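name: query_chain
kind: protein
chains: 1
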Amino acid sequence: MVRRRIRKLSTQILLAQVLILTVSMAVGFALFAQTARNNLDSDFQARAAGIAQTFAGMPTIRQCMAEPGIGCSVMIQDLASSTAARTGAAYVVVIDLNRVRHSHPNPALIGKKVSEPLVASDGKVHTGTDSGATGVNANARVPLYGPSGALVGEVSVGIRESSVSGELLNELPSYAAWFILVLAIGTLASFGLASILKRRTFGLELDEIARLLQEREATLHGIREGVIAVDPAGRISVVNDEAQQLLRLPAEASGRRLEDVLAPGLLRDLLTGTTAVTDEIVVTDDYCLVINRMPVTLGGRAHGAVVTLRDRTDVEGLASELAGERSLTESMRAQQHEFTNRIHGIAGLLELGRPGEALQYVNEIRGTTADLDQTLRTHIAAPQIVGLMLGKAAEANERGIELVILPDTDLGEAPDRVQALTTILGNLIDNAFDALAGVPAPRRVEVSVVETPESLTVRVTDNGPGVAAAEIPQIFSNGYTTKRGTLERHSGLGLSLVNNTVTKLGGTVTVSDGGPGASVSGGPGASFTVTLPRAPASASALVPDPTR
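structure:
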């Protein structure tokens, strides 16, 4: 249990802080005590110097040392002993110029020379620590002058170090109380800091934080989805390699604001918004992305948002191919159904014995339904595009729209960039069909595909309401649509895909403003024209699928 509790982050922080404070306080207290001891030594040395100077200033002592007489030795010893007893000094020693003692706590040493020279002979006061016959003392030595002012000796006064230690011991408890109080305050502050850090880490322990970091790094760089985390200020805090690739972010994107690393547009608006975004499709110059943005809230506070980016470019490319195949299948189904109905009609006329009317019916069929097939075979040799146009023709027939292949159409059997052409042509025709919804008959869509050695030109025209001049700059933006109801299924992606595909291949796309005579048929309508440059012959086989 104790081991588990010690592993807690708050406990570790508290123990570490208390240990640091205790060691710091102990070292500080020891240094303070040493400083206090040195100060007390200086104070006691100064006190000894004061005693020595006072004793050296006594006229009797000065006279006796200048002119020794009867009874001077006894008087000097008595005055020294009484002075030491009165002031608490350990000794008061008078020494003449010949280094002979005239007073001493040990009478046996009176009249004997000291081993060291007279340091006060220079006329100055000297202080220090003396280790003599009486033990360790705070010592002061002052010069002793006679009545005439001549130097006659020195006075040495010492105060026992035990007195200094006793004084220090008397002062230390009050200082120790202050240190303990500071230690207690520091401990409380450390406890508060540990609690704050515990809340900041959401109750996670150190090993849990380390494990989460390892798992996060492994997850971020192991998944195939782009992940971006932004803080409340909109700065990128986490970005993985996939997100940098999908959004073409610079290597130093982390720590910068999204607005600074993304170009203006729908993508930046979605990523920098404040609301949740679910499965929003955005088409960039290189990818078709699915965007999800989830705001993060912890403890009732906003902590930014997490954005995931899923690349569905390949899926869209496959869907485009599947749509072409489906169109061909639907066309064949519709033609088989129509063929069956016509065979039944012919068989019925023959059973009724009306061969003339049956022949007339066959000729009528040959003159109407065969027109589109003949036109496609004459002007378009590419089987993929023929399949696409047959499917669109079947859809047009079901929706009551006349689909016309213009006479200038000329496309070879293996045109350049066939996948791009399929995407462009299919989306433009779908857009024209949707534009004719609600338009009274006759409803007409005209298609022209012209291949030359220099370029490939696609033109799709309808006689619908046209495109307002104010909307032309926006119609190729991702997500922009003027459709409503069931027609909103395209979600503004069709023209955006066309524009991105054309731009990537270095082509151009233009649209009429819906004015009178905009369409070939003379109605207001809209006309979309796409021009693609031919790929170099040596690199044509290496051109990637632009829808991917």
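note: Residues 1-6, 484-491, 515-522, 538-548 have pLDDT under 50 and may be disordered.
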